[in-house]
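Tutorial, part two.
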Amino acid sequence: MHRTCLLLALGDSLTEGYGLPPGRAMPDVLQEMLRDAGLPVTCLNLGLSGDTSAGGLRRLRAWLARNAEKLQAHTMGTAPIVAIVELGANDSFIGIEPDEVAANLDAILSLFAGHGIPALLMGWQATMADTPDYADDFEDLYADLAAKHGTPLYADTLAGIWGEDRMTLHDGLHPSIEGVRHMATSILPLVRTLVETALAGADHATPPCPPRH
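Running the prediction step on this input gives:
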């Protein structure tokens, strides 16, 4: 049976593709790369510019509530789902306490785990924080959550992008088309492993028994 893996990309403007032409956001580029590697994947962009970890949690709960059929197909092994979680940048910009951000991300990862959806967690370096302690605590929360949930971690979402003129838009923060490609290429091995494992698991899933009358 031919199966397609659904990749949910939950994030903020870095996922949504702020300032970029349609079809050039990170989930779009990832989908292209994964398909070029022969993997049947459809990426769903759940990025929202300006969103925080709390907002992402609310949106994920709403998406799960609206998509019971997709979740049932995932549970039966006919349509596997994996996820990327890229949130926290806006929390750091407005000074949300790291413990609160950690609680929100913990709830997001727990929701995915509760539905058997493996996830990649993308970290954020709060280099613009007012104090070094805040920046350290913010960076640590991602490693702590990844260890708690057994989740793969890409520690710095903008590694190799921030501060590089050709990699960012005019604001010096949001990735350009080249920056997005760099980001997608950097996380591709981790995402590919998630997708390949999910598809392999679906191939070996036991079909549900027909109802007895």
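The chain has one domain: 5-204. In part three we will examine how such features are distributed along the chain.
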